[in-house]
Specification:
This protein is α+β, with helices and mostly antiparallel strands and 130 residues long. Helices cover 25% and strands 27% of the residues. The chain starts with 6 loop residues before the first helix and ends with a helix.
Length: 130
């Protein structure tokens, strides 16, 4: 697989934003790494030093007050798996015209860590508001 996105750069950008997220009272889980060279099933590691050839980096953000959650796994090939529950989803009635309170956000053609960071900021606004 061609390496499109520098996962270490993406992780550094996430780490730089984490203090602001914590200040906003979001729960920021440790990053998870998957090693492309690890035998199947490839375990998720929270210690980057244990990963020789990173294939993905994941993060989970949650707002314990509103129930909003965002889970993102960025793959070095230039796509991400993005799952969410919007803030205050339990108290909202959903009609056909409204967005579902949770689901998957398509995330393809990510060209760089900076592109990922910009998308992450957008997803944060979609899920947590603001």
């Amino acid at each position: 697989m061609e390496r499109t996105v520098d996962l270490d750069d993406a992780a550094a950008r996430i780490a730089a934003r984490a203090p602001r997220w914590r200040a906003a009272r979001l729960t920021v889980s440790p990053l998870t790494w998957r090693d492309r060279l690890a035998p199947w099933p490839q375990p998720l590691e929270t210690d980057r030093a244990r990963v020789v050839e990173p294939d993905s980096v994941g993060l989970r953000l949650a707002d314990p007050l509103t129930g909003g959650e965002l889970e993102v796994v960025l793959f070095r090939g230039g796509w991400a798996d993005v799952d969410y529950l919007v803030a205050d989803w339990e108290g909202e009635a959903v009609t056909a015209e409204e967005r579902e309170p949770g689901g998957v956000i398509p995330a393809r053609d990510i060209t760089s860590a900076a592109d990922f960071e910009a998308r992450l900021i957008g997803w944060m606004g979609d899920v947590f508001g603001g």
